[in-house]
């Protein structure tokens, strides 16, 4: 009996100790370690972001304007060329022969022209004399001094010389036409000789040589080399058609700035201006195509590259900004945790605007100067208290 009583007392004391320990352990939960940041008020650019493709400002396929053998190449594949630089030579010997023949034909026809002009001058002189004689004999015939036959003979001689003069004039016109044809042939031959040396029509970057020395080329057949002009250079990109009105309005009185960065190295950037708004919206994608121009003097941009594009429409003044990681998504929409003066947190629904450099515009829900939680939100709940810690300590604890 005494043993049972002792056991009962022992369990009663044990139960009392457990209850006492539970009472002592009860109390408010410890504050949650989080990282925080202040909401700031700033003026930021209003930007549209897109992915764009780099295009040369001009592309020229160099083709031969004459037929012949390719005899020499004077450029380096993949190298820079300037406007007027000699690129390729075509065998000029056939065209030199054609020029000599055309010049010889010109000299011959000019000699014939001179002969025809001399004949005309002689016939005109004889015609004047014949006209005088014909008039004299006609007068003498009327006076009865000479016979009718003599007068008519002088008249016939005059008419014959007049016809001869007309024939000489026709020969002159024919010779002049021949000389003009010969001169055109000379100019054509000279032009063909110029075409034997193919020069760059633009400054740019040469591609690979597509036809090598020794091959025969035809007139306007295949491209011998392609030259891309990369100073300036274009970036083409598409944006949703909902921005078309704002783009047209803001580009009406000023050039809209455009900044691009390389996808493989975002620190390499280039600045330019919007230069072209396409004249139609693509119904299949619901986008409008735009084109920006960059001077590209540092050769950062290269045809065919994909780049990140930021088109600045306007400046948003005095907006509230918080780090983008502060904004969370919930069933009722987006929200942030705001830290109050007593270190308690309040779940605050927000309306967000555009994002800039990992910061997001808060259009409604948070005021500048308030403190928001940027990391550690998974452990929070309405009414919880927090303990702000540096980001590196929170990461160390989480790891």
Topology of helices and strands:
Elements lengths: L1 H24 L6 E7 L1 E23 L5 E6 L6 E2 L4 E5 L2 H51 L4 H48 L1 E3 L4 E3 L9 E2 L7 E16 L3 H7 L6 E6 L6 E14 L4 E8 L11 E18 L4 E3 L2 E7 L5 E5 L1 E6 L2 E6 L6 E5 L10 E3 L2 H8 L1
Parallel strand pairs: 1-20
Antiparallel strand pairs: 1-19, 2-9, 2-13, 3-5, 3-8, 4-7, 5-6, 7-9, 9-12, 10-11, 10-13, 11-12, 13-18, 14-15, 15-16, 15-19, 17-18
Helix pairs in contact: 2-3
Provide a brief overview of the structure.
Helix content is 35%, strand content 37%. By secondary structure, the chain is an alpha+beta fold.
β-strand percent reads 35-45%
The helicity comes to 25-40%
Spatial separation of the terminal alpha carbons: 58 Å
Number of domains: 4
pLDDT under 50 segments (min length 5)? 1-9, 20-25
Question: Helix tally?
Answer: 5
Major beta sheet summary: 6 strands, mixed
The Cα radius of gyration reads: 48 Å
Helix/strand-derived category reads alpha+beta
The succession of helices and strands, N to C, reads HEEEEEHHEEEEHEEEEEEEEEEEH
> Globular, elongated, flat, extended or rod-shaped: what is the shape?
elongated
Mean pLDDT, to the nearest integer, reads: 86
**Strand segment tally:** 20
């Amino acid at each position: 009996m005494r043993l049972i009583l002792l056991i009962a007392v022992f369990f009663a004391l044990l139960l009392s100790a457990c209850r006492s320990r539970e009472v002592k352990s009860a109390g408010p939960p410890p504050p949650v370690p989080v990282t925080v940041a202040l909401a700031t008020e700033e003026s930021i650019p209003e930007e549209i972001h897109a992915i764009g493709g780099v295009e040369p400002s001009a592309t020229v396929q160099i083709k031969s304007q004459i037929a012949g053998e390719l005899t020499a190449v004077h450029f380096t594949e993949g190298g820079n060329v300037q406007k007027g630089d000699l690129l390729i030579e075509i065998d000029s010997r056939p065209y030199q022969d054609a020029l000599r023949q055309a010049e010889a034909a010109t000299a011959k026809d000019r000699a014939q022209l001179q002969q025809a002009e001399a004949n005309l001058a002689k016939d005109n002189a004889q015609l004047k004399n014949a006209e005088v004689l014909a008039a004299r004999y006609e007068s003498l015939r009327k006076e009865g001094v000479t016979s009718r036959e003599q007068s008519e003979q002088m008249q016939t001689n005059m008419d014959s010389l007049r016809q001869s003069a007309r024939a000489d004039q026709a020969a002159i016109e024919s010779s002049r036409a021949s000389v003009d044809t010969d001169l055109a042939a000379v100019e054509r031959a000279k032009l063909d000789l110029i075409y034997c040396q193919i020069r760059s029509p633009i400054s740019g970057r040469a591609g690979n040589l597509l036809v090598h020395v020794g091959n025969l080329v035809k007139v306007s057949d295949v491209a011998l080399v392609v030259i891309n002009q990369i100073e300036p250079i274009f970036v083409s990109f598409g944006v949703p058609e909902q921005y078309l009105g704002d783009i047209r309005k803001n580009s009406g009185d000023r050039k809209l700035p455009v900044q691009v960065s390389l996808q493989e190295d975002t620190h390499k950037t280039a600045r330019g201006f919007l230069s072209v708004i396409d004249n139609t919206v693509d119904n299949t994608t619901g986008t409008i195509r735009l084109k920006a121009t960059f001077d590209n003097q540092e050769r950062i941009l290269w045809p065919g590259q994909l780049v990140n594009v930021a088109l600045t429409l306007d400046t948003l003044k005095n907006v509230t900004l918080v780090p983008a990681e502060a904004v969370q998504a919930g069933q009722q929409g987006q929200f942030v945790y705001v830290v109050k003066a007593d270190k308690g947190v309040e779940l605050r629904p927000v309306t967000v605007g555009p994002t800039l450099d990992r910061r997001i515009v808060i259009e409604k829900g948070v005021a500048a100067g308030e403190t928001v939680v940027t990391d550690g939100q998974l452990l929070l709940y309405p009414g919880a208290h927090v303990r702000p810690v540096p980001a590196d300590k929170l990461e160390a604890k989480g790891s």
